[in-house]
Amino acid sequence: MSHWFQSLLSRRDLLRVGAGSAAALVGAQALGQAPQPAGMDHSQMGVTPAAPPKGHGGHGGNLMVGTVDHARNGFDPMQLLTDWDTGKVSQLPDGQTLREYTITAQEKDIEIAPGVFFPAWTYNGRVPGPTLRCTEGDRLRIRFFNHTSHPHTIHFHGVHPAEMDGVPGAGPGEILPGGSFLYEFDAEPFGCHLYHCHATSLKRHIHKGMYGAFIVDPKEGRPPAREFMMLQNAFDTNFDGANEIYAVNTVGFEFARRPIPVKKGELIRIYLINIIEFDLINGFHLHANFFNYYDTGTTLDPTSRIVDTVTQGQGQRGILEFRYKFTGQFMFHPHISEFTELGWMGVFNVVEGADYAAALQEVGLDAAWDRRATQGSTIKGQGA
Q1: What is the pTM of this model?
Q2: Can you give the CATH number for the domain in which 146 is found?
């Protein structure tokens, strides 16, 4: 890649050229086409600007040109909202619930914006890795296999013995290429947690994609709701220590192109996690609405009530709960303009119940996705 093109991919130039034009340039380079100089408009470049999402006018002008091939990626950000992995479930002799999972470290190129490929390090071939879900007090066994060319670990946020902490110098330390290890501990405390690689250099292993959500349901459960997992991440495409693409669940602007269907008046619960590297903070702002916030999700009482914006540092997470009073398309994004313009922006499509099946079909979803969103809790009877 030429020095000129590397400089084009810097964060400042992405903002100057505009996310759509810059993404088209990146896509051209990825396809072996000659990039055009910065400053040319869409008509000069021979590309058609993406249509804005309905109801948001000029905001859609930031959308990147083209679409991402989710089948080739092996994961779909819309499916990641609800694909809880509850493991293989059985009972131990003392009656304790046992949940068994398998996680494999793999190296894989993933498409993070139309035509923009990133050399990721992954858990189970996806970024983020599987969303592990369990109940407080369950015994967890996670079989980890390292099928990459670098040492890796899994560090879980939670309470566990030192040898299960997944850090260098504790227990097995870093798991070498070709190696494996069985992490085993009880799930505590309940809340919205995460896991990630803790091998050195830590910032590179996290940034390259080795992270995922770890949801522990309280024994008494939570009120029925439509639930989504949103993991805020970002990508340094030219490895200069600054991110060029920002997203929720990896693909920039995915939820602007495909608004998330919800029903008017229903309780919505978001498990929100921030894992961006190279930026000090991230956040979430809900348009035309307010939410209750449960910091880290370790309490059943809100830690902040009736707010519309929350700020998170890396590794921070929490649970948002809210309802929509009106139908329509409502934006959500961080209240950090740069992140919004570079991919971290989405839309909720709020509809009446009678219109919900059509809203699902419009963005390629089905009844199975709907069931996972409303029946994902590991507590029997807690589904909506």
Answers
A1: 0.87
A2: 2.60.40.420
Q: Are both 120 and 147 inside the same structural domain?
A: yes
Report CA torsion sign: 248, 254, 255, 256: positive
**pLDDT tens-digit readout, 241-289:** 999 999 999 999 999 999 999 999 999 999 999 999 999 999 999 999 9
**Distance between CA 35 and CA 24 in Å, rounded?**
9
Q: Alpha helices of 85-235 — where are they, by DSSP H?
A: 202-207
Q: Domain check: are 79 and 128 in the same one?
A: yes
Residue 209 resides in a domain: yes
Strands 226-235 and 245-248 come out as antiparallel
Which amino acid, one-letter code, is at 131?
Answer: T
Give me 308's structure tokens: 């519309």
Question: Computed over its alpha carbons, how large is the radius of gyration of the chain?
Answer: 21
Q: Which domain holds residue 117?
A: 74-217
List pLDDT tens digits, range 102-121.
999 999 999 999 999 999 99
The verdict on residue 3 lying in a domain is no
Question: Is 5 contained in some domain?
Answer: no
